Amino acid sequence: MSENSKQRRIVLVTPDKAFARETHAAFAASESVSLDTIEMSVTQLRGELQGAECAAAIIDMDAAKLDEIEALQRVTRRMDGHAPVIVVTKEFDAAAVRILVQLKVADFLVKPISTADLVRSCIRVLQGPGRDSGQEAQIYTFMPAAGGVGNTTLAVETAFQLHRSITRGASTCVVDLNLQQGACAEYLDLEPRFDITEVENRPERLDRQLLDVMLSKHESGLAVLAAPVKPTEMRTFDTEIVVRMLDLVSAYFDNVVIDMPRTWFPWTETVLLGSNKLYIVSEMTVPCLRQTQRLVHAIADVTQKQVKPGVIVNRFEQKRFDSGLKEADVEELLGEHYAGGISNNYKLVREAVDRGVPLHEVDSDANVIRDLKRIILPDEASQAGGRRSLFGGSLFRKSA
Length: 400
Prior knowledge:
Layout: H1 2-5, E1 8-13, H2 17-27, E2 33-38, E3 56-61, H3 66-79, E4 85-89, H4 94-102, E5 107-110, H5 115-127, E6 138-144, H6 151-163, E7 172-176, H7 184-187, H8 208-214, E8 216-217, E9 223-225, H9 239-252, E10 255-259, H10 268-273, E11 277-283, H11 286-302, E12 310-316, H12 327-334, E13 338-343, H13 346-355, H14 359-362, H15 367-376
Parallel strand pairs: 1-2, 1-3, 3-4, 4-5, 6-10, 6-11, 7-9, 7-10, 11-12, 12-13
Antiparallel strand pairs: 8-9
Helix pairs in contact: 2-5, 6-15
């Protein structure tokens, strides 16, 4: 009796009796989880799940069917975040991924699946990575407006600032999504260990155990997920792989910093929609700022204005009698998207990159670090008045 009272109740919604039997058998040995079944399609639900008082729900559905997606929307709206939702679906494509991400489902698996994977998924969403269940990962995404603007440098240093932060200080992971020619691991003198070919054909194999094997660990505790450089290879990967990877990382880390490639891939839109904060990194030249403006408009069009990027102008220089670009020109061009400028300190950045260390290890009070902190962690920046954060909303499955 006392053991049963400790069990957490999961409700499975499925019209598939065979799947229900297999799932019940998989959970039967668990002392911490009990499983109840509602044998009907998600479209038939009226209020059964809402009053079920469950710790989590598993929805077996077909994500390719509009009526089932609409029914899932009603379910997530009624549950209002009180219990995580895991989706098991027959069909899976980029459009389905975007919808599931927007609905903030806790996890999604594609049939055929092993019941062991389903049990692990349930336990993970119930227990989380050891932090408070109400605290969600924050996703910071950095996207370059052009090549060589310092996107990786700012992404890596942001990760260190978050990792060492008073308010956000906790587990932090850098994810290098430049899967063929990334440099995040190189910047920290680490060996990239993410072998994407291991999971390319079977994304469901990517679990916490395999993730631990593929993470590179910095001595500070910062984790880096980066693939070995393949300079002669240029191809994309299925959206399912990228989303599953980010979904898993965001479940086990409090802060996730994504270094995006310049090229737009089929999964790019999904990553942007999943970010709590998106920063476009530009520099102080007219061509780059024009390209930045075009990229801001393109993101607004593609995401239907659901994503509001901030622009960081790197290598910012403002000379009193300079006849070139001034900050007022940048603000006029970018408007509310202008998040701030980062001072030009080539010597500091060059030394840090050559030594394979973070910027603060070279100079903890460098102007670059102060400028970045005013943008990323305005509440912790000096009282001299940094630029306020432009972001208040959250768009990812792990958003607060």
